[in-house]
Design the sequence.
């Protein structure tokens, strides 16, 4: 596994890369899926390739915004997500829905970071779907009550990772896996019937 640092004005992305497609897989229909775990300080991202027989790891990492003013951090999230999209070329994106935090200010900032990521995906014409934390845990770990460590272990198992990803990147990979699972169940029944205005999906 090699570590690559991608730089852009005002932020850094740290991404782990491994080889991800065998010749037999390359011959089939595959979809690159981006998962986003939004945050005003750290936004995790994970990219997987859906081969039709399962998902293969492509990349993961974190967009770290530093300690600047909120509007500056939101701009970094937006630019960072766009950089990830341009680098890996996903066609669809899953993102976690805002949870009801005890701290109203934290929930507001999380919602704003989430909005910045969604706009970045929309500007790159990605199909976007939203999932609750419970939906993600259920899809990946088989129970909506799984903790972060259990989710990470399942992510590593499903994607055959030999090293633990960063926690925010692990959550993003889990979201990508959840989205892949949901898309595979929707497509036979007509994905377009689940689509709402602006390319967003009602799930």
Sequence:
């Amino acid at each position: 596994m090699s570590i690559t640092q991608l730089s852009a004005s005002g932020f850094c992305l740290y991404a782990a890369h491994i080889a991800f497609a065998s010749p037999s897989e390359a011959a089939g229909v595959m979809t690159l899926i981006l998962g986003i775990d939004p945050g005003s300080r750290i936004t995790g991202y994970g990219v997987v390739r859906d081969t039709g027989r399962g998902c293969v790891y492509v990349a993961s990492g974190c967009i770290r915004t530093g300690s600047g003013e909120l509007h500056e951090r939101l701009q970094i999230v937006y630019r960072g997500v766009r950089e990830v999209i341009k680098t890996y070329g996903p066609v669809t994106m899953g993102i976690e829905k805002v949870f009801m935090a005890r701290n109203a200010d934290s929930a507001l900032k999380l919602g704003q970071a989430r909005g910045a990521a969604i706009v970045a995906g929309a500007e790159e014409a990605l199909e976007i779907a939203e999932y609750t934390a419970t939906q993600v845990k259920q899809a990946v770990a088989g129970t909506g009550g799984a903790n972060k460590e259990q989710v990470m272990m399942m992510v590593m198992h499903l994607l055959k990772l030999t090293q633990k990803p960063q926690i925010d990147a692990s959550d993003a990979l889990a979201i990508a896996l959840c989205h892949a699972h949901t898309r595979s169940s929707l497509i036979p029944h007509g994905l377009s019937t689940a689509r709402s205005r602006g390319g967003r999906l009602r799930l």
